[in-house]
Task: structure prediction
Amino acid sequence: MAPKKQGTKDRNKILEENKSTLDFYAKVMISVEVTYIIFRFTFFNFNSSWLSWVLLLFGTSLYCGCYKFMESMAKPTYSESGALIDGGMDLNSESGTAEHVKDLIILTAITQGLAIFTDYMWLLLFLAPCRAMYMLWVYLLAPWIFAQPDETEVDPKKQKKMERKMKRSGMM
Result:
């Protein structure tokens, strides 16, 4: 039995879910940033160097870029009368760009949380370009490189003869 087709969501429901999703990820980002700053620069002050500040700035810029991108994807459209025309893209769909952006936010938050203890944990952010290269290979390059060649042109007379044979044998 084929899987059930997923129903479409109401515009208002998408708008509300997008707001709650953006709110959740904003809370995650802010809480990890504040925790990092408090612990890294107060309790572990002996280990804060210029590199710690640069990495904090890098993590913050990643957060801001991802959040602004998700915010622009979820931007609703209203009519002149104020009625909701479009609730924006669904940030909670199971596949799509928003899912990858949310994964990047989670990866950055985990990395920053672990980087409280050592700067070497920032190396975990190299997992993002590795995953991007993997997806590029799996979904774009490999299917293109290893695709079966197109069928060669068959003489129309031979094609008709083959079709007649197939009809007679009951294959068509």
